[in-house]
Design goal:
The chain is an alpha+beta fold and 382 residues long. It is built from 11 helices and 10 strands. Helix 1 packs parallel to helix 4 and helix 7 packs antiparallel against helix 8.
Length: 382
């Protein structure tokens, strides 16, 4: 079905993203994949191309638009790209809203220009070795000492953990066991702060070029000026920003699955068995028909969510529905495409095999499928 959510400005950005990926990323993809991270300079180039910071105010060098459709265009094109590329959705969709909505004027002047240009790379540190979906289990502490916080703890599975310059760290600032969700704050830890150490760059099953690391905080002195938002309101700040992150993941899941579906469609037309194209066998034809239908339906829901963002009424529940359904669908689509490729689908030289590994994390990060269903079920009064 024809999508009507985007206009000419969005399509112009789409063309820019495609050209950027072909020019700046494709020649380096194999190198980045082997190194386990992209070069830092690619973020600056993305900023120069207008692919970063379009939601940052113009006074700080950004585009001055909070139209999430621009975010969606960048997510879609990067998800369709066959190769390694920087994780711009982490910068644009996940972290930029924290600084847009929570930073005070002094912090905005200090940090936003670098965020807009790509010179400052962002990360958020929530997950710990003993605390994943259950954020209430976070143990990383931040104790006040004069005008500073002293941060101690460890985080893991942190995207952009190696390249990042500013890390939004979820810390326990209220040690009272009965404080519940009112025990946490968000502190911005900066590259070079004494006691802030990068641990292992983790060896992942997929998304090899996306640097993911362990972070350690050993008596890191963080000035109170780096408190993002209100003290002990960190959990609520996280909940406020998670819907946009989850919608972004849903968008990427469907765009990536659509690209693999399109390649597979051509494959089943070209590949012959028993004297005719394998796509003409009834079972395979039905599989492709089902996938095409489900992808169309998912895009309709995503576009409705995008409209809800524009209208200011995208709920956490609606975003959770998009996140779990679209990521699970993306996983099913790519799995079916591997099957249709037969033995070739198991070879890393084929894109479908790489996509099978890269996409597997989508039902886990940003909130697992099970957590999404729990949020939806609780909203039903169950």
């Amino acid at each position: 079905m024809k999508r009507t959510i985007f206009n000419e400005d969005h399509e112009a950005l789409r063309a820019t993203a495609r050209e950027f990926l072909a020019r700046e990323c494709a020649p380096h993809s194999d190198e980045w994949e082997a190194n386990g991270q992209v070069d830092r300079e690619i973020y600056k180039k993305a900023g120069d191309a207008g692919l970063l910071g379009f939601n940052i105010p113009e006074e700080f060098g950004g585009g001055g638009s909070e139209d999430f459709r621009f975010n969606a265009v960048v997510v879609e094109e990067f998800a369709k790209f066959d190769g390694a590329a920087p994780g711009l959705s982490l910068q644009n969709d996940v972290l930029a809203p924290y600084f847009l909505h929570l930073a005070n004027e002094e912090q905005r002047k200090r940090w936003m220009p670098g965020i807009a240009t790509g010179e400052t790379i962002l990360a958020v540190a929530m997950t710990e070795p003993g605390a994943g979906s259950d954020l209430a289990g976070i143990k990383t502490s931040a104790k006040k000492d004069g005008d500073d916080y002293i941060v101690n703890g460890a985080k893991t599975f942190i995207s952009a953990g190696i390249n990042s310059d500013l890390v939004v760290v979820v810390c326990r600032t209220n040690p009272d066991p009965g404080a519940g969700h009112k025990a946490f704050s968000l502190l911005v830890v900066e590259r070079g702060m004494e006691g802030f150490e990068r641990g292992r760059k983790l060896d992942k099953m997929g998304l090899k070029s996306a640097d993911t690391a362990e972070l350690n905080f050993n008596n890191v002195r963080v000035p109170k000026e780096n408190l993002l938002g209100e003290e002990n309101k960190g959990f609520y700040h996280l909940m406020q920003n998670l819907p946009s992150e989850r919608l972004s993941i849903a968008i990427g899941a469907i765009a990536g699955a659509r690209a693999i579906f399109d390649e597979t469609l051509q494959y089943v037309k070209d590949r012959k068995a028993f004297g005719k194209p394998i796509g003409t066998f009834q079972h395979n034809r039905f599989v492709m028909a089902e996938l095409a239908t489900e992808l169309d339906l998912a895009e309709v829901y995503i576009d409705r969510c995008l409209q809800a963002v524009l209208d200011g009424d995208l709920s956490a529940v609606d975003a959770s529905k998009a996140k779990w359904w679209c990521t699970e669908l993306g996983k099913r689509v790519i799995d079916a495409c591997v099957q249709l490729h037969g033995g070739y689908g198991y070879m890393n030289e084929y894109r479908v095999a790489r996509a099978y590994k890269d996409s597997r994390i989508q039902t886990i990060f940003g909130g697992t499928t099970e957590i999404m269903k729990d949020i939806i079920g609780r909203d039903l009064g169950l």
